[in-house]
Design brief:
It contains 2 helices and 16 strands. With 254 residues, it is mainly β. Strand 15 and strand 16 form a beta hairpin. The chain is elongated.
Length: 254
């Protein structure tokens, strides 16, 4: 059995070859045994007497709790009974709490005022010095609309009514992150850079620094917002970014 995988945050240029035991076929294989320091995709090529079968597995570095969130006992990474994935499980049999690691939810807002769009220059990594719209991780106890409004206030010092915002786009990133992007028309052009922004400004759509944006998803969102501006019900743009069998990034609609 031979595994081929590629791992590199940007170029995916490094190729890894893994040889694993036949116990994989019995379902006992653990991708964490490789301890990948970066996101990677593993491709399995099985040759039998009759044909060749290919299986693709995704493996991502996990950052589960070292200690139980309920009782404080050290955890172990195992496949719980009735499950098919490894989880962080409390070692105390009387507790047995299972910690589930799930994709993160990112919320953002593309805010406009008098046909100008609000942009923030990032003061933190990743992509420090690049431009984008306010966005960040959803917090406990808030809706996605509320989270987008909070991020806008924190990063740009601008406010809008979450109830009046419209869901514009949903981006699924390789099973690790889900982004929900809203659009909102601001009542005024007040703004003030937050601690995560080195600069904030309104720009016309023609003056958006397209070559200096922070992430591909920022480009997707801004392009879509520009293309549907003035449209009452533009529909929700859905895109998925994933890895193909040959270890390359692929973007699909929907």
């Amino acid at each position: 059995l031979e595994f081929r995988g590629s791992r590199d945050y940007c170029s995916l240029s490094a190729t890894m070859i893994y040889r694993v035991a036949a116990s994989l076929l019995a379902g006992t294989f653990s991708a964490s045994a490789f301890q990948p320091s970066q996101q990677c995709i593993l491709h399995l090529r099985l040759r039998t007497a009759d044909n060749v079968k290919r299986i693709s597995l995704s493996a991502f570095p996990s950052a589960g709790p070292a200690y139980c969130e309920v009782c404080g006992t050290p955890t172990q990474k195992i496949i719980p009974e009735g499950d098919e994935r490894e989880r962080y499980v409390c070692r105390d049999p009387e507790c047995g709490h299972i910690s589930y690691q799930n994709p993160k939810v990112v919320v953002g807002a593309i805010c406009t005022h008098n046909d100008r769009v609000l942009l923030c220059k990032r003061a933190i990594e990743p992509c420090v010095g690049k431009w984008g719209y306010p966005q960040g991780f959803l917090e406990l106890g808030e809706t996605t609309r509320q989270g987008a409004a909070r991020e806008t206030w924190e990063e740009a010092g601008a406010r809008f009514d979450p109830a009046k915002s419209e869901l514009l786009a949903i981006y699924n990133l390789a099973g690790m992150q889900i982004q929900m992007i809203y659009r909102a028309e601001l009542e005024n052009d007040d703004f003030e850079p937050g601690h995560e922004s080195s600069d904030v400004k309104f720009v016309s759509w023609d003056d958006v620094p397209w070559e200096d944006l922070a992430f591909p998803t920022v480009t997707w969102g801004l392009e879509y917002a520009r293309d549907v501006k003035g449209t009452a019900d533009p529909g929700i743009q859905e895109r998925t970014k994933l890895m193909t069998m040959d270890g390359k990034w692929k973007v699909e609609e929907g």
